[in-house]
Amino acid sequence: MEILAFGVQSDERPLIERAFEGHHQVRGLDVFLNADTAPIAAGHEVISTSVNCDLGAEVLAGLAAGGTRMVAQRSTGFNNIDLEVAERLGLTVARVSSYSPYSVAEFAWTLAMAVNRRIVRASTRTRDFDFRLDGLMGRDLHGRTAGILGTGKIGEAFARIAHGFGMRLLGWDVAENPACLELGMTYVPKERLLAESDLVTLHVPLLPETQHLIDAAALKTMRDDAILINSSRGGLVDTAALVDELREGRFTGVGLDVYEAEAGLFFLDKSLEAVDDDTLARLVTFPNVLVTSHQAYYTVDAVGQIIGTTVDNVLDYTAGRRSENVLVPRTPRS
Protein backbone atom coordinates (compact mmCIF):
# COMPACT_ATOMS: atom_id res chain seq x y z
CA MET A 1 0.00 0.00 0.00
CA GLU A 2 1.21 3.51 -0.84
CA ILE A 3 0.67 6.15 1.84
CA LEU A 4 0.44 9.78 0.79
CA ALA A 5 2.00 12.21 3.29
CA PHE A 6 1.11 15.90 3.01
CA GLY A 7 3.17 18.82 4.31
CA VAL A 8 6.47 16.94 4.47
CA GLN A 9 9.51 19.14 5.11
CA SER A 10 12.76 18.34 3.30
CA ASP A 11 14.49 17.40 6.58
CA GLU A 12 11.57 15.13 7.41
CA ARG A 13 11.40 13.23 4.13
CA PRO A 14 14.29 10.75 4.66
CA LEU A 15 13.09 10.05 8.21
CA ILE A 16 9.61 9.15 6.96
CA GLU A 17 10.93 7.00 4.14
CA ARG A 18 13.24 5.05 6.47
CA ALA A 19 10.52 4.61 9.09
CA PHE A 20 8.03 3.08 6.65
CA GLU A 21 10.65 0.92 4.91
CA GLY A 22 9.66 -2.73 5.11
CA HIS A 23 6.06 -1.87 5.94
CA HIS A 24 4.48 0.32 3.27
CA GLN A 25 5.53 2.67 0.51
CA VAL A 26 5.24 6.34 1.35
CA ARG A 27 5.20 9.35 -0.95
CA GLY A 28 5.94 12.64 0.73
CA LEU A 29 4.52 15.88 -0.66
CA ASP A 30 5.62 19.36 0.32
CA VAL A 31 2.12 20.73 -0.35
CA PHE A 32 -0.44 20.94 2.42
CA LEU A 33 -3.80 19.24 2.31
CA ASN A 34 -6.69 21.59 1.56
CA ALA A 35 -9.70 21.73 -0.75
CA ASP A 36 -7.47 22.35 -3.77
CA THR A 37 -4.99 19.54 -3.08
CA ALA A 38 -7.40 16.91 -1.71
CA PRO A 39 -7.96 15.32 -5.16
CA ILE A 40 -4.30 14.23 -5.13
CA ALA A 41 -5.23 11.72 -2.42
CA ALA A 42 -7.71 9.86 -4.63
CA GLY A 43 -7.03 6.15 -4.53
CA HIS A 44 -4.97 6.28 -1.34
CA GLU A 45 -6.55 4.39 1.54
CA VAL A 46 -4.22 6.00 4.10
CA ILE A 47 -2.89 9.54 4.15
CA SER A 48 -0.73 11.37 6.66
CA THR A 49 -1.14 15.05 7.51
CA SER A 50 0.56 17.82 9.45
CA VAL A 51 -1.00 20.31 11.83
CA ASN A 52 -1.33 23.03 9.18
CA CYS A 53 -3.33 20.84 6.82
CA ASP A 54 -7.04 21.59 6.42
CA LEU A 55 -9.21 18.66 7.43
CA GLY A 56 -12.52 20.47 7.57
CA ALA A 57 -15.83 19.07 6.37
CA GLU A 58 -15.30 19.81 2.67
CA VAL A 59 -11.83 18.26 2.56
CA LEU A 60 -12.85 15.19 4.55
CA ALA A 61 -15.81 14.60 2.25
CA GLY A 62 -13.49 14.78 -0.75
CA LEU A 63 -11.06 12.34 0.84
CA ALA A 64 -13.79 9.84 1.64
CA ALA A 65 -15.19 10.10 -1.88
CA GLY A 66 -11.71 9.37 -3.25
CA GLY A 67 -11.34 6.19 -1.22
CA THR A 68 -9.38 7.39 1.81
CA ARG A 69 -10.24 5.49 4.97
CA MET A 70 -7.57 6.56 7.43
CA VAL A 71 -5.89 9.87 8.37
CA ALA A 72 -2.65 9.67 10.37
CA GLN A 73 -1.94 13.12 11.78
CA ARG A 74 1.74 13.80 12.51
CA SER A 75 1.13 16.01 15.54
CA THR A 76 -0.36 16.04 19.00
CA GLY A 77 -2.80 18.83 18.19
CA PHE A 78 -5.87 18.05 16.09
CA ASN A 79 -7.83 21.29 16.12
CA ASN A 80 -7.54 21.31 12.30
CA ILE A 81 -9.68 18.15 12.01
CA ASP A 82 -13.48 18.05 12.09
CA LEU A 83 -13.78 14.84 14.08
CA GLU A 84 -17.58 14.70 13.96
CA VAL A 85 -17.55 14.79 10.17
CA ALA A 86 -14.74 12.22 10.04
CA GLU A 87 -16.77 9.85 12.20
CA ARG A 88 -19.88 10.36 10.09
CA LEU A 89 -17.89 9.55 6.95
CA GLY A 90 -16.41 6.42 8.49
CA LEU A 91 -12.83 7.71 8.52
CA THR A 92 -10.31 6.52 11.08
CA VAL A 93 -8.28 9.38 12.55
CA ALA A 94 -5.18 8.97 14.69
CA ARG A 95 -2.65 11.42 16.07
CA VAL A 96 0.63 11.37 18.03
CA SER A 97 -0.38 11.53 21.68
CA SER A 98 3.04 12.58 22.88
CA TYR A 99 6.64 13.11 21.86
CA SER A 100 9.75 14.68 23.38
CA PRO A 101 8.50 17.45 25.69
CA TYR A 102 12.04 18.80 25.84
CA SER A 103 11.98 19.96 22.22
CA VAL A 104 9.16 22.45 22.87
CA ALA A 105 10.19 23.38 26.40
CA GLU A 106 13.77 24.10 25.37
CA PHE A 107 12.61 26.15 22.40
CA ALA A 108 10.24 28.16 24.59
CA TRP A 109 13.23 28.97 26.75
CA THR A 110 15.22 29.87 23.64
CA LEU A 111 12.55 32.43 22.75
CA ALA A 112 12.46 33.76 26.30
CA MET A 113 16.22 34.24 26.47
CA ALA A 114 16.38 35.71 22.96
CA VAL A 115 13.83 38.45 23.67
CA ASN A 116 15.13 39.10 27.17
CA ARG A 117 18.75 39.55 26.06
CA ARG A 118 17.94 41.14 22.67
CA ILE A 119 19.85 38.44 20.79
CA VAL A 120 18.33 39.07 17.36
CA ARG A 121 18.98 42.80 17.54
CA ALA A 122 22.55 42.22 18.74
CA SER A 123 23.23 39.69 15.97
CA THR A 124 21.89 42.05 13.31
CA ARG A 125 24.06 44.87 14.60
CA THR A 126 27.27 42.91 14.75
CA ARG A 127 26.81 41.75 11.15
CA ASP A 128 27.11 45.44 10.32
CA PHE A 129 30.07 45.79 12.71
CA ASP A 130 27.94 47.86 15.09
CA PHE A 131 29.06 46.81 18.56
CA ARG A 132 27.16 49.35 20.67
CA LEU A 133 25.27 48.12 23.73
CA ASP A 134 22.52 50.74 23.57
CA GLY A 135 19.10 49.06 23.71
CA LEU A 136 20.50 45.61 24.53
CA MET A 137 20.03 45.59 28.31
CA GLY A 138 18.21 42.54 29.62
CA ARG A 139 17.36 41.23 33.08
CA ASP A 140 18.53 38.42 35.32
CA LEU A 141 15.79 35.79 35.50
CA HIS A 142 17.19 34.33 38.70
CA GLY A 143 14.88 35.25 41.57
CA ARG A 144 12.06 36.33 39.28
CA THR A 145 8.71 34.58 38.75
CA ALA A 146 7.82 32.17 35.95
CA GLY A 147 4.12 31.64 35.33
CA ILE A 148 3.33 28.41 33.48
CA LEU A 149 -0.13 27.99 31.98
CA GLY A 150 -0.45 24.26 31.43
CA THR A 151 1.74 21.95 33.51
CA GLY A 152 1.64 18.71 31.57
CA LYS A 153 4.79 17.10 30.22
CA ILE A 154 5.98 20.20 28.34
CA GLY A 155 5.02 22.60 31.10
CA GLU A 156 6.83 20.39 33.60
CA ALA A 157 9.96 20.35 31.43
CA PHE A 158 9.82 24.15 31.21
CA ALA A 159 9.37 24.35 34.99
CA ARG A 160 12.45 22.20 35.60
CA ILE A 161 14.55 24.59 33.53
CA ALA A 162 13.03 27.58 35.34
CA HIS A 163 13.83 25.91 38.65
CA GLY A 164 17.42 25.55 37.48
CA PHE A 165 17.47 29.30 36.85
CA GLY A 166 16.40 29.82 40.45
CA MET A 167 12.98 31.20 39.60
CA ARG A 168 9.81 31.24 41.67
CA LEU A 169 7.21 29.00 40.01
CA LEU A 170 3.50 29.69 39.60
CA GLY A 171 1.24 27.25 37.76
CA TRP A 172 -2.26 27.09 36.38
CA ASP A 173 -3.99 23.96 35.13
CA VAL A 174 -7.12 21.88 35.59
CA ALA A 175 -5.07 19.44 37.70
CA GLU A 176 -1.90 19.88 39.72
CA ASN A 177 1.23 18.04 38.58
CA PRO A 178 2.95 16.38 41.58
CA ALA A 179 6.36 16.73 39.89
CA CYS A 180 5.83 20.49 39.60
CA LEU A 181 4.74 20.69 43.24
CA GLU A 182 8.00 18.99 44.21
CA LEU A 183 9.85 21.77 42.37
CA GLY A 184 8.12 24.28 44.62
CA MET A 185 5.41 25.40 42.21
CA THR A 186 2.37 27.15 43.64
CA TYR A 187 -0.89 26.71 41.75
CA VAL A 188 -2.92 29.90 41.56
CA PRO A 189 -5.83 31.33 39.55
CA LYS A 190 -4.92 32.54 36.07
CA GLU A 191 -5.43 36.19 36.97
CA ARG A 192 -2.97 36.02 39.86
CA LEU A 193 -0.42 34.16 37.75
CA LEU A 194 -0.57 36.81 35.06
CA ALA A 195 -0.36 39.67 37.55
CA GLU A 196 2.66 38.31 39.43
CA SER A 197 4.76 36.66 36.70
CA ASP A 198 7.80 38.20 35.03
CA LEU A 199 7.71 35.42 32.44
CA VAL A 200 4.46 33.85 31.20
CA THR A 201 4.56 30.76 28.99
CA LEU A 202 1.68 28.81 27.42
CA HIS A 203 1.59 25.02 27.27
CA VAL A 204 -2.09 24.12 26.95
CA PRO A 205 -3.99 22.56 24.02
CA LEU A 206 -6.23 24.66 21.81
CA LEU A 207 -9.81 23.81 22.73
CA PRO A 208 -13.02 25.87 22.60
CA GLU A 209 -12.51 26.78 26.25
CA THR A 210 -8.89 27.85 25.72
CA GLN A 211 -9.45 29.88 22.54
CA HIS A 212 -7.99 33.34 23.29
CA LEU A 213 -6.98 32.25 26.76
CA ILE A 214 -4.78 35.33 26.63
CA ASP A 215 -7.31 37.93 25.55
CA ALA A 216 -7.40 41.71 25.97
CA ALA A 217 -8.34 41.46 29.64
CA ALA A 218 -5.61 38.92 30.37
CA LEU A 219 -2.99 41.04 28.62
CA LYS A 220 -3.95 44.08 30.69
CA THR A 221 -3.55 41.97 33.84
CA MET A 222 0.09 41.23 32.99
CA ARG A 223 2.98 43.37 34.12
CA ASP A 224 4.13 46.07 31.72
CA ASP A 225 7.64 44.60 31.71
CA ALA A 226 6.61 40.93 31.47
CA ILE A 227 7.79 38.43 28.86
CA LEU A 228 5.11 36.41 27.03
CA ILE A 229 5.99 33.15 25.27
CA ASN A 230 3.66 30.99 23.17
CA SER A 231 5.03 27.78 21.66
CA SER A 232 1.76 25.85 21.88
CA ARG A 233 -1.07 26.97 19.57
CA GLY A 234 -1.61 30.37 18.00
CA GLY A 235 -5.28 30.54 18.90
CA LEU A 236 -4.43 30.76 22.59
CA VAL A 237 -3.53 34.44 22.12
CA ASP A 238 -5.78 37.19 20.77
CA THR A 239 -3.16 38.59 18.41
CA ALA A 240 -5.06 41.78 17.58
CA ALA A 241 -5.34 42.58 21.29
CA LEU A 242 -1.62 41.80 21.71
CA VAL A 243 -0.75 44.26 18.95
CA ASP A 244 -2.82 46.92 20.71
CA GLU A 245 -0.85 46.40 23.93
CA LEU A 246 2.47 46.44 22.10
CA ARG A 247 1.52 49.76 20.52
CA GLU A 248 1.25 51.10 24.06
CA GLY A 249 4.87 50.15 24.66
CA ARG A 250 4.10 47.25 26.95
CA PHE A 251 6.10 44.07 27.59
CA THR A 252 9.83 43.48 27.74
CA GLY A 253 9.51 40.84 25.07
CA VAL A 254 7.10 38.55 23.24
CA GLY A 255 8.21 35.27 21.68
CA LEU A 256 5.72 33.51 19.39
CA ASP A 257 6.42 30.24 17.63
CA VAL A 258 2.76 29.98 16.61
CA TYR A 259 0.19 32.36 15.18
CA GLU A 260 -3.58 31.99 15.10
CA ALA A 261 -3.78 32.59 11.33
CA GLU A 262 -0.62 30.69 10.43
CA ALA A 263 -2.29 28.21 8.07
CA GLY A 264 -1.29 29.11 4.52
CA LEU A 265 1.73 31.05 5.78
CA PHE A 266 3.90 28.99 8.11
CA PHE A 267 6.09 26.26 6.59
CA LEU A 268 5.96 28.12 3.25
CA ASP A 269 8.26 30.60 1.51
CA LYS A 270 6.32 33.85 1.21
CA SER A 271 9.38 36.07 0.86
CA LEU A 272 8.58 37.08 -2.72
CA GLU A 273 4.88 37.66 -2.12
CA ALA A 274 2.84 40.44 -0.60
CA VAL A 275 1.45 39.07 2.66
CA ASP A 276 -2.02 40.52 3.19
CA ASP A 277 -2.21 39.65 6.89
CA ASP A 278 -2.06 43.12 8.42
CA THR A 279 -1.94 41.81 11.99
CA LEU A 280 1.10 39.62 11.37
CA ALA A 281 2.77 42.34 9.31
CA ARG A 282 2.37 44.77 12.21
CA LEU A 283 3.41 42.21 14.80
CA VAL A 284 6.81 41.49 13.28
CA THR A 285 7.71 45.19 13.18
CA PHE A 286 7.93 45.54 16.95
CA PRO A 287 11.55 45.42 18.13
CA ASN A 288 10.62 43.45 21.26
CA VAL A 289 8.76 40.71 19.35
CA LEU A 290 10.30 37.54 17.92
CA VAL A 291 8.16 35.36 15.64
CA THR A 292 9.38 31.95 14.49
CA SER A 293 7.70 29.49 12.14
CA HIS A 294 6.19 26.78 14.38
CA GLN A 295 9.52 25.03 14.81
CA ALA A 296 9.57 24.29 18.54
CA TYR A 297 8.93 20.59 17.94
CA TYR A 298 11.48 20.41 15.11
CA THR A 299 14.34 18.36 16.54
CA VAL A 300 15.60 15.08 15.17
CA ASP A 301 14.52 13.45 18.44
CA ALA A 302 10.95 14.76 18.48
CA VAL A 303 10.35 14.38 14.74
CA GLY A 304 11.73 10.84 14.89
CA GLN A 305 9.28 9.98 17.67
CA ILE A 306 6.40 11.62 15.80
CA ILE A 307 7.13 9.64 12.66
CA GLY A 308 7.65 6.40 14.61
CA THR A 309 4.27 6.78 16.26
CA THR A 310 2.68 7.62 12.91
CA VAL A 311 4.02 4.36 11.47
CA ASP A 312 2.63 2.47 14.49
CA ASN A 313 -0.75 4.14 13.99
CA VAL A 314 -0.87 3.01 10.36
CA LEU A 315 0.17 -0.53 11.28
CA ASP A 316 -2.48 -0.60 14.00
CA TYR A 317 -5.07 0.49 11.44
CA THR A 318 -4.13 -2.20 8.92
CA ALA A 319 -4.14 -4.83 11.69
CA GLY A 320 -7.47 -3.70 13.10
CA ARG A 321 -5.94 -2.62 16.41
CA ARG A 322 -6.84 0.47 18.40
CA SER A 323 -4.50 2.52 20.61
CA GLU A 324 -4.69 5.66 22.72
CA ASN A 325 -3.71 7.65 19.63
CA VAL A 326 -7.00 6.97 17.86
CA LEU A 327 -9.35 9.96 17.85
CA VAL A 328 -12.00 8.40 15.62
CA PRO A 329 -12.10 4.58 15.62
CA ARG A 330 -12.12 2.36 12.60
CA THR A 331 -15.56 1.55 11.25
CA PRO A 332 -16.41 -1.67 9.46
CA ARG A 333 -16.24 -1.55 5.68
CA SER A 334 -19.63 -1.63 4.00
Task: Please give a handful of descriptors for the protein shown.
2 domains; about 325 residues; D-isomer_DH_NAD-bd; Rossmann fold; 13 strands; 7-stranded parallel β-sheet; alpha/beta; about 35% helix
Question: In CATH terms, what is the fold-level topology of the largest domain?
Answer: Rossmann fold
Distance between the termini: 20 Å
Radius of gyration: 21 Å
Order of helices and strands: EHEEHEHEHHEHEHEHEHEHEHEHE
Which shape, going by the Cα principal axes?
globular
Oligomer: single chain
Considering DSSP H and I runs of 4 or more, what fraction of the residues is helical?
25-40%
Q: Strand order of the main beta sheet, please?
A: 8-7-6-9-10-11-12
CATH architecture of the largest domain: 3-Layer(aba) Sandwich
Pfam families: 2-Hacid_dh, 2-Hacid_dh_C
Enzyme class: oxidoreductase
Protein name: D-lactate dehydrogenase
Domain D-isomer specific 2-hydroxyacid dehydrogenase NAD-binding: 110-296
What does this structure look like?
The protein has 334 residues and is of the alpha/beta class. It folds into two domains: 2-99 and 299-328, 3-Layer(aba) Sandwich (Rossmann fold); 101-291, 3-Layer(aba) Sandwich (Rossmann fold), CATH 3.40.50.720. 34% of the residues lie in helices and 15% in strands. It contains twelve helices and 13 strands. It has a seven-stranded parallel beta sheet, sandwiched between helices. A six-stranded mixed beta sheet has the order 2-1-3-4-5-13. Helix 1 runs parallel beside helix 12 (300-319). The radius of gyration is 21 Å and the shape is globular. The chain starts with a strand and ends in a 6-residue tail after the last strand. The model has no long low-confidence stretch (mean pLDDT 95). Belongs to the D-isomer specific 2-hydroxyacid dehydrogenase family. Residues 110-296 form the D-isomer specific 2-hydroxyacid dehydrogenase NAD-binding domain.
